Amino acid sequence: MQLSAGQLPAHLQKGIKPLYTLHGDEPLLIQEAADAIRAAARAAGFSERSSHTVAGAHFDWSEVLAAGGSLSLFADRQIVEIRIPSGKPGKDGSTAIQQLCAQSEGNTDVLTLVMLPRLDKATRSGAWFAALERHGVTVALEPIERSALPQWLAQRLAQQDQRVKPGVEGQRSLQFFADRVEGNLLAAHQEIQKLALLFPPGELGFEDIERAVLNVARYDVFKLSEAVLAGQRMRVQRMLDGLQAEGEAPVLVHYSLAEDIRALKRVRDAMDAGRPLPMALREQRVWGVRERLFERVLPRLDGESLARLLKAAHQVDGIVKGLKVPGWPTDAWQALQRLAMSLCGYCAAR
Fold it and tell me: Measured between alpha carbons, how far is residue 278 from residues 229, 268, 271, 298, 342 in Å?
């Protein structure tokens, strides 16, 4: 059985299952889902808990199998937690997990909780993960996208009887809050808790949030690519500043920008040759969020514009590797900003 994070509370109210699997890269969401399962288990009489972390190829799975297949001497019901930080249990682990899944069938005295990072499609199609899905409940903890972050913040504030002011000021407050905590959900949760300590229940003004919330945002180059293709100039500037401050390699940032430009040029050339846009995107292996962004910006990009961007990307490639290019800044981050803003300008809604 597959559930979303939002479906888990209602599911737990109906009763506990013997096997749960949580997978995702957001520590806060994994922690909260695991806490909810543990709380429901304790209410159902599971009074003992053991934890096992799979580290390295020589992990001893026999201890886990023994814990899952036997009752405790001191408690009738127990929780067995298995953490696999790499998401790769290995050959022995795959066999052990499938055996563990078989043991869980009809065993109401042992609750097994497996915690994994975000898994790719190939891993999810493996026999061991298929067994987890078949015998138990799997919950995918998806990251909170930037567009959904203000609403998430509002919901968390409401849980502690706080809210922003209605109308434009409230939306401004939530957008400011989201800018300060983007990409760092655990720190966002801590900032929300801090607001509960600093201010009483009720409305929060923009000044309250501006004064109290620290800038704890964290960025990655993949999100930068999405922001550039969405034409979000101010967000792109914040992300470039953040990546530079965090010590990200300019070469990696350039690769992300240049790869988008090359992909846009290949799809544009295919369209000019008569291929429909959906077919051209499939041929260039453009999927998911990136596919939707390409569909939005390609009709406004011609081959000549993309050729100029491709030339600029080639010039910036030399700059980030220490070369000087006439007409361009010598500083790698300044050159990257100019390239990103050029692409962003073409992608911005008109």
Answer: 18, 12, 10, 11, 25
Quote the pLDDT of residue 216.
86
Q: Tell which residue, 101, 100, 139, has the closest CA to residue 119.
A: 139
What is the model's pLDDT at position 349? 62
Count how many residues are written for the chain.
350
CA atoms within 13 A on the CB side of 266: 14
Nearest Cα to 115, choosing from 53, 71, 173? 53
**Through-space distance between the first and last CA atoms of the chain, rounded to whole angstroms:** 45
pLDDT along the chain (350 residues), means of 10: 89 92 93 95 90 83 77 69 91 91 85 92 89 94 91 96 94 94 92 95 94 88 92 93 93 95 95 92 87 91 93 96 94 97 86
Q: How far apart are CA 201 and CA 209, in angstroms?
A: 14
Report yes or no: 204 and 173 within 8 Å, Cβ to Cβ: yes
Distance of alpha carbon 99 from alpha carbon 295, whole angstroms: 46
Measured torsion, CA atoms of residues 80, 84, 85, 86, in degrees rounded to the nearest 10: 180
Widest CA span in the chain:
77
3-state SS assignment for residue 12? helix
Amino acid at 251: V
Tokens found for residue 127:
């026999």
**What domains can be seen in the chain, in order of their start residue?**
2-140 (3.40.50.300), 146-212 (1.10.8.60), 221-347 (1.20.272.10)
Strand order in the sheet with 137-140: 2-4, 137-140, 19-23, 110-116, 78-83, 48-53
Look up residue 350 and give its DSSP letter.
Answer: -
Query: Residue 239 is encoded by which pair of tokens?
Result: 């992300």
3-state SS of the chain: helix, strand, coil percent to 5? Answer: 60, 10, 30
- Nearest 5°: phi and psi at 37? -65, -45
Q: What 3-state DSSP class applies to 20?
A: strand
CB atoms within 10 A of CB 111: 26
